[in-house]
Amino acid sequence: MVLGKSLSQDGAVRSAAEALFATFQAAGAMPVETAMLQPADTLLDLYGEDIRARAYVTDDPVLGEQMLRPDFTVPVVQMHMSGGADPARYAYMGKVFRKQDAGSGRLNEYFQVGYEVFDRSAPEALDAEVFVTFAAALEGIAHTAVVGDMGLLTSVVAGLSTSERRRAALMRHVWRPIRFRRLLDRFGGAAPPLERNTLTDDAPEIGLRTKADVTDRLALLAEEARESPIPANELSAMDAILSLAAPAPDALARLETLSGNLPSLRPAVDRLARRFDALRKRGIDTEALMFEGSYGRTHMEYYDGFVFGFSAGDIGPIATGGRYDALTRALGSNGAIPAVGGVVRPDLLLQARSASS
């Protein structure tokens, strides 16, 4: 009985996935497939060793270190950047694999169905198109939508009155909220500089770092301790963005005010205004659309602009997505191609549909 129930559930999920797959193809997407085993070096180059904690890694005697596919977006971007049409729309479906904490109740193997758009024209209009495409896929299901913009945070970081090294460190950890906060506190003077020990000539070399590596690191820490703290008004603006949660028009008004004192924020706010206009033209009630300044910071760290999510009650995010222009730059040898897309969890879609009926 248990086996039969499991097979029945898996069949229902697959049927839901196939229906979503057909929906995205009807929206103009070309169906594509990606290998279940992906080269680990690409993902490690993009995300560092942190990805090992979330992915299943194996060694192949011919292919080298491989990962069970943790996500579709990276291989789809690689495929497109190696010779895809321009513009292009893609749809895909299949299983992804991610390690989960014990007792979390989350699946470590599940279906994703995705829709990706590569197009150099009218980015805000395309953001709106993708958002509406996913909203239509969830029609008939009680859900809430949230949007954000990682570009707001990165634009503020880029304009901070501090050293390039500090800005680079903050930019690298903007998707890791705890590390990011620690850096802000340290660079702003709210927390003391890291303790610096001295290195004696007879100190043994332990691990992979050489004495030269350690000496260079100690010199950087000493240089950091001499730097002036980031101005308080810039830190308060960053906090204001991170804590912002309001309907889209109210959020835009607050960001307009903040940008008056932060010139680097202005272009991102203008893009946000154009995006809200594009959403309204597509029939989205932006008065009821929630905006969160920190939304998207715990997803896969390739989203660098518009981000969105659709949730249903306690089920959590059914669909998520966003813009990832920088990822195409990182994976393409001939420059970047503006890109935006997202994924749906058909298993969670079924749960939400059952709860709505």
UniProtKB/TrEMBL annotation:
Instruction: Name the InterPro entries for this protein.
Output: aa-tRNA-synth_II/BPL/LPL, HisRS-like_core, HisRS/HisZ
Q: Does the keyword Glycosyltransferase apply?
A: yes
Which part of the chain is the Class II Histidinyl-tRNA synthetase (HisRS)-like catalytic core domain? 12-174, 221-344
Residues annotated to bind L-histidine: D71, F72, T73, R98, Q112, E116, R297, Y302, Y303
Q: Where are the transmembrane segments?
A: none
Q: Which Pfam families match?
A: tRNA-synt_His
Q: Which residues form the signal peptide?
A: none
Q: Keywords for this entry?
A: Glycosyltransferase, Transferase
Superkingdom in the source lineage = Bacteria
- Gene Ontology CC entries for this record: cytoplasm
Which GO-annotated molecular functions does the record name? glycosyltransferase activity
Q: What is this protein called?
A: ATP phosphoribosyltransferase regulatory subunit
